[in-house]
Amino acid sequence: YRLSSRILGLLAMGVPPSEVLATTFTRKAAGEILERVLLRLAEGASHPAKAQELGKDAHPILTQPEECRGLLSRLVANLHQMNVGTLDAFFVQMARSFFLELGLPPKWTIADEPTRDRIRTEAVLVALAEADRAQLVELLRMLNRDAAHRPVHATLLDKMDSLLAIRRQLDPRAEDPWSPEFGVTEELSPETLRNRALALATRLLDLEVPSTQRGDPMKQWVTARRTASETISRLDWDGAFGSGIGAKVLAGEDSFSRKTIPPEFVELFREVIRLARIDLAPELRREVRALGRLAEVLEAAFDRAQRRVGAYRFNDLTYLLGGSDPTGNRDDLGYRLDQRIRHLLLDEFQDTSLEQWQALQPLASELLSGHLDEHTVVIVADP
After folding, report:
1. Pairing mode of beta strands 109-110, 255-256
2. Quick check: helix, strand or coil at residue 23?
3. Cβ atoms of 163 and 337 closer than 8 Å
4. Which of 45, 147, 203, 321 is 20 to 30 A from 313 via CA?
5. How many CB atoms lie within 10 A of CB 4?
6. How far is 289 from 284, CA to CA, in rounded Å?
7. Which PANTHER family does the entry mention (predicted)?
């Protein structure tokens, strides 16, 4: 309703339909916006009360049914100029106008599902041939923790999209984005690590558990305390935090088995969490760095396969449009798009991804830098 009101207001002020771009996320939603614009004008043209509503919500001139009829007639005659569609459709239009800057082949197309699968398979085969075999085996072991006997090819196919998405979201200014810190700076020898774990496990057994109404120690707490102590003593962090009191503390919850977790338990388990981080951080860093190298190989192979086939996914175009300013700071943006957009209306903005906004930013920045009466950006979003 807000978006259709704004479109009607702009049209009532004499703004040509071609200068208004309204985007949403589905073709159905785009059709509903356009349908609502036409329906509200038609209602205003035939019902004075509806015209009064339009005058209040869109523009005062539309309080007169004859003005609604005139605008409806002009709009229908120029309906082909209305820019109400999906973000994906607009990005395809931008990509066709800037294919050279984006490094796209001249006759590129949107990949259908079989083509997407073929490109992904080709990229995986190249990555398997180029990757370090020892590192690859270790990585696959890590990626397949829940399915240890899954085929290598199937694993990489399943994980490739996630790895590429992570790589594309990394800050290009980061010196070493595949080296997470995990909030750990301390390093311990294996012996020191075991001694600290044993000390914490022993301290845990000395803590007093909550009592029943009869004053007896609660059996669930006694069992959970003993199990946690055993898992901590053997550095079994999955066991220590997969269930029981440790899982509750790790999740930030304050009760276990219908009893508030005493402060001394919370503090001890926080010490165990810090020790687990010290123990796990070195291996996790190695794994993440290796994942970064694998993602780099996969991305290069994927890009080559896409260019060879000449087919791209919608999110690939969005990523290319949002990177290294291919369309920004250009005086010919409107000319290249074969239209002069002066008013941008974004629906469901809360669902807009960072990559989508980066692709839109050159256009939005140009509009926001202009005079308020000449250029506008309207954002509709849920709180």
Report:
1. unpaired
2. strand
3. no
4. 147
5. 23
6. 9
7. ATP-DEPENDENT DNA HELICASE SRS2, UVRD / RECB / PCRA DNA HELICASE FAMILY MEMBER
